[in-house]
Amino acid sequence: MIEKFVETYTKKLATRPECIGVSSRDITEEDGSITREICVLAHSDDLGRLIGKEGRMIGSLKTLISGAKAKDGQNYRIFIQAINQ
C-alpha cells in the first residue's frame, strides 16, 4: 500500500514519470525489529525535483509515511536512486 502511494506521488512530481520505479524489501535490524526499505528509482534529471530544496520534498514524503507507521506499527526507510536511460 505504501509503495503504491510513493510511486503515484513521485510520478506526479517527475518530469519523466515513465522512468519511475519503486521497490521494497524487509530488513531485520539488530534489535530484531523489521524495517521496510523503499527504494525509488528515478531518472537522474528528476533527482533534484524529488529531493526538493533543502530536502523538503523527500522530507514531506517521509512525514506522510510516518503517519502510516503510527497506524500499522511498521518502520519505513525511503531513499532515491538514480537510473540513466
How would you sum up this structure in a few lines?
This is KH domain-containing protein. The protein is α+β, with helices and mostly antiparallel strands and 85 residues long. It has 3 helices and 3 strands.
Overview of the structural elements:
The longest helix has 17 residues, at 56-72. The model has no long low-confidence stretch (mean pLDDT 89). The protein is built from 3 helices and 3 strands. The protein is globular and about 40 Å long. The chain is an alpha+beta fold and 85 residues long. The protein has one domain (1-83): GMP Synthetase, Chain A, domain 3. It has a 3-stranded mixed beta sheet. One of its GO terms (molecular function) is RNA binding. It comes from Helicobacter equorum. This is KH domain-containing protein. Keywords: Cytoplasm, RNA-binding.
